[in-house]
């Protein structure tokens, strides 16, 4: 090697050494800065999950928040701020997960976070801490019935994990494993959905009858109606012990009907081989129900209705293009619980039918909160209440994006309804148990 080449090599080595020293020094300085910031309590950067019109996929936004909670991240639900947005710490993988799910997020620095909190403090808004991802279960028959369930569709689209259980798991005490329970399109009165007139000869109907009768025999019940009463009592006890119950369609009114009819037979011979107790109506015990009282039964086996709780006839008169319901605007600071349940990017939502479409207000128990109603009518669409240490929320109708979902219709493709305000109400309920509980101040 020549002398000039040797000098050039030495010079390059010196430059590399000096660069390495600079990098090591910078790392030390950065470590000191971070250590000082953490020691002084300085907050890390945050991410806003907007839930107003800026959000590309409202439904999967709930799944993103659930994903973060499941990884030990504590977030905040900003009630009435930009449609009920979420504020999360900026953690490793969050931005990538949001991108993968197609969820809109916005970076928020400390000055931005301070401005958000100032706006919340000065308006009908509130910050609710989100702590733990709830354990979710859906009560559903083991063989798929010929209709889908909006809650399962919402959970699967939002990518929120859940478990399925049915009568055996309920009676075996498995409810205690879950924080939140949804009642699938179900008939707790033991009348198989009152589908006798239209579907008594259908294979799926006969299979449903056989499944229910097999479980009844397994647990020592002479009739399916007695099995369902016992299941309803177990679910009621689950709520009393602190469970969160959510139900839609016929899982709402038939649940209370079964509780009220604990000491009488309301089932016609077409369903169980013997007749209805002639004094069944007088024997109903409304002290045992959660949401409804003073209702009148429909015991005719050929009539597709359980009682006068349901408001389907009114909704059918309004028709698909004029049927809407409106969310109540609660005080977020005074009434945070109902405020959480009505978070949405719109206040008026298109209606939808179900076997149970809505609820007669006159038949609600005192203390039950109406979350949404049909304008100018006496029917509630969405209600909430407390029982023991737990809560129940009932949402009328079958599918928020299919006005009249018939037996055998294909499932709704939520990729086409990713900003559905009706489906958002379902997912509000799923995240509800994650919230730090605040007592009502009024």
What features would you describe in this structure?
- This protein has 442 residues and is α+β, with helices and mostly antiparallel strands.
- The protein has 3 domains: 36 residues; 85 residues, Alpha-Beta Plaits (2-Layer Sandwich); 299 residues, Class I glutamine amidotransferase (GATase) domain (Rossmann fold), CATH 3.40.50.880.
- The chain is built from 15 helices and 15 strands.
- Strands 6, 7, 8, 9, 10, 11, 12, 13, 14 and 15 form a 10-stranded mixed beta sheet that branches.
- A hairpin with a 2-residue loop joins strand 14 and strand 15.
- Helix 2 packs across helix 5 and helix 2 packs parallel to helix 15.
- The longest helix has 37 residues.
- The chain is globular and about 70 Å long.
- It starts with a helix and ends in an 11-residue tail after the last helix.
- The relative contact order is 0.13.
- The N terminus is likely disordered.
Question: What's a quick, concise take on this entry?
Answer:
Helices cover 37% and strands 15% of the residues. It has 442 residues and is of the alpha+beta class.
The quaternary organization reads as single chain
Gross geometry: globular
The CATH superfamily of the largest domain is identified as Class I glutamine amidotransferase (GATase) domain
Report the sheet-strand fraction.
15-25%
Q: What percentage of residues falls in helices of 4 or more residues?
A: 25-40%
Total helices: the number is 15
Main beta sheet strand tally, sense and closure: 10 strands, mixed
Q: Report the C-alpha radius of gyration, rounded.
A: 27 Å
> What's the average pLDDT?
90
Structural class: alpha+beta
Strand elements, count: 15
Q: Could you say what the CATH topology of the largest domain is called?
A: Rossmann fold
Model regions low in confidence, pLDDT < 50 over at least 5 residues: 1-11, 13-17, 19-43
CATH architect. name of the largest domain: 3-Layer(aba) Sandwich
N to C succession of SSEs = HEHEEHEHEEHEHEHHHEHHHHEHEEEEEH
Number of domains: 3
Cα(first) to Cα(last) distance is 89 Å
Q: CATH top level of the largest domain?
A: Alpha Beta
């Amino acid at each position: 090697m020549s002398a000039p080449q040797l000098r050039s090599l030495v010079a390059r080595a010196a430059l590399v050494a000096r660069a390495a020293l600079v990098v090591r020094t910078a790392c030390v300085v950065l470590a000191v800065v971070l250590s000082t910031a953490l020691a002084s309590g300085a907050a890390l950067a945050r991410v806003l999950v907007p839930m107003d019109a800026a959000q590309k996929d409202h439904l999967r936004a709930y799944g993103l928040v659930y994903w973060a909670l499941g990884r030990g991240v504590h977030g905040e639900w900003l009630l009435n701020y930009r449609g009920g947005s979420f504020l999360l710490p900026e953690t490793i993988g969050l931005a990538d997960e949001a991108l993968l799910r197609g969820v809109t997020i916005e970076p928020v620095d400390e000055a931005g976070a301070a401005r958000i909190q100032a706006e919340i403090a000065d308006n009908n808004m509130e910050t609710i801490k989100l702590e733990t991802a709830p354990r979710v279960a859906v009560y559903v028959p083991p063989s798929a019935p010929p209709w889908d369930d909006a809650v399962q569709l919402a959970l699967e689209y939002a990518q929120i994990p859940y478990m399925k259980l049915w009568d055996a798991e309920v009676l075996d005490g498995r409810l205690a494993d879950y924080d939140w329970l949804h009642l699938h399109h179900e008939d707790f009165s033991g009348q198989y959905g009152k589908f006798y007139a239209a579907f008594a000869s259908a294979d799926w109907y006969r299979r449903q009858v056989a499944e229910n009768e097999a479980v009844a025999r397994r647990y020592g019940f002479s009739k399916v109606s007695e099995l369902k009463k016992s299941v309803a009592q177990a679910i009621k006890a689950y709520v009393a012990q602190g469970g969160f119950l959510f139900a839609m369609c016929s899982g709402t009114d038939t649940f209370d009907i079964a509780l009220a009819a604990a000491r009488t037979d309301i089932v016609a011979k077409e369903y169980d081989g013997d007749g209805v107790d002639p004094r069944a109506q007088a024997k109903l015990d409304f002290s045992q129900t959660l949401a409804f009282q003073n209702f009148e039964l429909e015991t005719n086996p050929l009539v597709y209705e359980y009682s006068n709780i349901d408001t389907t006839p009114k909704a059918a008169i309004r028709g698909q293009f004029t049927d809407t319901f409106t969310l109540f605007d609660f005080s977020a600071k005074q009434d945070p619980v109902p405020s959480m349940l009505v978070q949405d990017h719109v206040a008026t939502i298109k209606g939808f039918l179900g076997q149970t479409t809505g609820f007669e207000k006159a038949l609600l128990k005192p203390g039950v909160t109406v979350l949404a109603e049909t304008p100018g009518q006496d029917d509630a669409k969405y209600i909430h209440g407390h029982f023991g240490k737990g809560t129940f929320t009932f949402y009328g109708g079958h599918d928020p994006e299919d006005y009249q979902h018939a037996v055998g219709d294909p499932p709704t493709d939520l990729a086409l309804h990713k900003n559905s305000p009706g489906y958002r109400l379902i997912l509000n309920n799923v995240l509800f148990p994650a919230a730090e509980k605040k007592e009502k101040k009024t």
